[in-house]
Design goal:
82 residues, three-stranded antiparallel beta sheet, 3 strands, elongated
Length: 82
């Protein structure tokens, strides 16, 4: 079984990574299972997550668009009990 990876809506602040599994018989791809989609944002934690999850050359393609600096701030965590 093989995997097809697509970088959907890649821009400077985010990307959606779409993966589909398939088998190929006589030159025809037959997709099996569900489509998996995961969104990442160009933040410090988003960069760490995508670096763990995405293989080359896809990771380099994303980082080429995102550049060297995260542009999405990390969400603030509210530690107050209400």
């Amino acid at each position: 079984m093989q995997e097809l990876i697509s970088l959907d809506e890649l821009n400077i602040s985010s990307v959606s990574v779409v993966t589909r599994k398939y088998i190929e018989e006589d030159g025809v791809k037959y997709f099996v299972g569900d489509i998996h989609r995961r969104a990442y944002v160009n933040s410090e934690s988003g960069r760490a997550d995508i670096s763990k999850d995405l293989s080359e050359p896809y990771l380099s393609a994303v980082m080429n668009i995102w550049g060297d600096t995260p542009i999405v701030p990390e969400p603030e965590i509210d530690n107050h009990d209400e």
